[in-house]
Amino acid sequence: MRKFLVLLSFVLLVGLLAACAGDESSGESSGDGGEGGGLEGEITLYSPETPDLTEELAAKYEEIHGQKVNVHYAGTNVLVNQMLAEKENPQADVWYGGGGILPFESAVDRGIITPFVPESAEDWEVVENGIKMKHEDGYYTGAELFVLGFSYNTDLVSEEEAPKTWEDLLDPKWEGKIQFPNPAASGTATLMVLSYMMQHGEEEGWEYFQKLAQQANSIPDSGSGPTKSAAMGEAHIAVGFDFMAYDHKAKGETVDFIVPEKTPILVNPMSLVQDGPNPEGGKNFMEFMLSEDAQQILANWHHIPINPDVESKTPLNLDAISENAVDLDIDWVNENYDRIRNEWQNNIN
């Protein structure tokens, strides 16, 4: 009887240890993204970019790495505010996109992003050919390139007569035929205003935009709205990013794009979220974003790829546009961004 009780105790002890080991194993592979989860945990991506684009990127990553990517879509300002609200308990691992570097620059001191540079970008210069490719302390890295310029309706405007400089927009022949986004609402248009003022000063800048506003038949809040209007013939000329025009053109609409002689050219960045639940997964996704697979997807959506091994689907690439890049004083932009946006309504009648 005594031998039987000892044997029974041994069997129960072995079973208990096995159950504990099973619990530990289950915790490690549960995919909660917590400590020890590593690349086995799911990745959460915050992005304001086109949902179909980000879902395609997520699907390709999952296909290659077997790791789930949950995409959370909202506007840039909404996402920034959400990350600020979640600072004590971050929910995202990666933030990708925001119409260029400005939202990321302003986020650096807010404690919502943390330094990480993908291996393939470690040797990049911070600024190459007048374009800031990554943050000097590694808080963000460019994933693609955006060019601010002029879309034009090819049924209404020939390539020869289309404006080639920002000053050309003031030609009397364009009166009532131009659209540009509202800088009080659109980051795209705020970039336009800040860039001009950096080159010409605020006094001359406000004079310029007073005149430009009088040329417009509409100043919508949406950054993509003017380009859509040009494609539909509701405007002859529109201010917007290059991919907006080429996306409409690829759908058979009568629109094309002009890169102004001197204009903002920005990387559209990605960043690792501070204290995100799955930092290793986030880093791996950022590495993927510079791979040929991801860059090809971006190129297919008419974005300018940053990986030299991927060919752009538009006439624009880094070599073709670098001479047009205007040197942006990022410190000045950060100091004046909110003020200029707030003053727009008071200065432009």
From TrEMBL:
PROSITE patterns: PROKAR_LIPOPROTEIN. Residues 23-42 are annotated as: Disordered. Residues 30-40 have a biased composition (Gly residues). Keywords: Signal. GO terms for molecular function: thiamine binding; thiamine pyrophosphate binding. GO terms for cellular component: outer membrane-bounded periplasmic space. This is Extracellular solute-binding protein. It comes from Allobacillus salarius.
